[in-house]
């Protein structure tokens, strides 16, 4: 029997639910999520294996108009994934269009940026599947105009209304994705589910807590670097991994906020992160965090290099 295998880029505006959908398909948390836009900064590949099939699902940073160097690199990563993949999964938050349509039924349901994204996806000359996401929060009659507008924009695409959060209608999406995958032998061992290191996932977990616990510009000015990942105690009778991590921000005032009064905020970040990291690694974790300032690191290529943010 022939085998199907290929890569699918998850493409969408910030906050559309790409990372939530990837986690839902994999049944494990690989990508951090938050209610704030621009949470994901890297391409993150998860692998969904079935009999006779391997889907490499590549989560990407939300596609947006980028001004800072960090944002430009994020968008570059997204475009690279879109161009490099075998198929595109365009994730659209239906609540957006539904709201617009409710306000003014005569106005276009999709905005100019959606139209630009539709064109970008269409012109790649590869299959496009569209997810109309977040149907759990939009009344059915308001979803229909959005589906119609999407069908008009990308006539050849299959459109699947679903909820990445609840997993409702996920099977229909998997069915569509199976169809668009090319015939190809598996590219990874079939028991593998992630194409990222534990070290990366740990840094992401810490960054997620920054997104959840801090406000305004702080999450966007923060970078997490794992300085030491000491696994020497992992195989012992009481397994323990020791992690020493640096949180970099752009300004002294931000450092004060991340540390908090009497170190309160940093303690909360550390406590929540440690719980998740212990679950990920399956053992006790000692986590030490400290905060450093790298002036305006998001603004220049040099700044990105200094904190260790990889362009690729
Ligand atoms: N109600 C509802 N919320 C959802 C759904 N999918 C995602 N969300 C929420 O939407 C927010 C953004 O989700 P993410 O998965 O982080 O979105 P993203 O597209 O990866 O965002 P970026 O990484 O910033 O580009 C989170 O608060 C999710 O819980 C859904 O189907 N229903
Ligand atoms: Mg994301």
Give me a quick take on this structure:
With 312 residues, this protein is α/β, with parallel strands linked by helices.
How much of the polypeptide forms β-strand, as a percent range?
A: 15-25%
Helical content (DSSP H or I, runs of 4+):
25-40%
Distance between the termini: 36 Å
Biggest beta sheet summary:
6 strands, mixed
CATH topology of the largest domain: Rossmann fold
Explain the overall architecture.
The structure is a single chain. The protein has eleven helices and nine strands. The protein is of the alpha/beta class. It has two domains: 4-180, P-loop containing nucleotide triphosphate hydrolases (Rossmann fold, 3-Layer(aba) Sandwich), CATH 3.40.50; 198-307, K homology (KH) domain (GMP Synthetase, Chain A, domain 3, 2-Layer Sandwich). α7 (198-213) runs antiparallel to α10. The chain is globular. The two termini are 36 Å apart. The model has no long low-confidence stretch (mean pLDDT 97). The structure holds guanosine-5'-triphosphate and magnesium ion.
Write the SSE topology.
Elements: E1 4-12, H1 18-26, E2 44-50, E3 53-59, H2 69-84, E4 87-93, H3 94-103, H4 112-122, E5 128-133, H5 140-153, E6 158-161, H6 170-180, H7 198-213, H8 218-221, E7 223-230, E8 240-249, H9 252-259, H10 264-281, E9 284-293, H11 301-307
Parallel strand pairs: 1-3, 1-4, 4-5, 5-6, 8-9
Antiparallel strand pairs: 2-3, 7-8
The structure holds guanosine-5'-triphosphate and magnesium ion.
List keywords for this structure.
Rossmann fold, GMP Synthetase, Chain A, domain 3, 11 helices, alpha/beta, six-stranded mixed beta sheet, binds guanosine-5'-triphosphate, binds magnesium ion, single chain, 312 residues
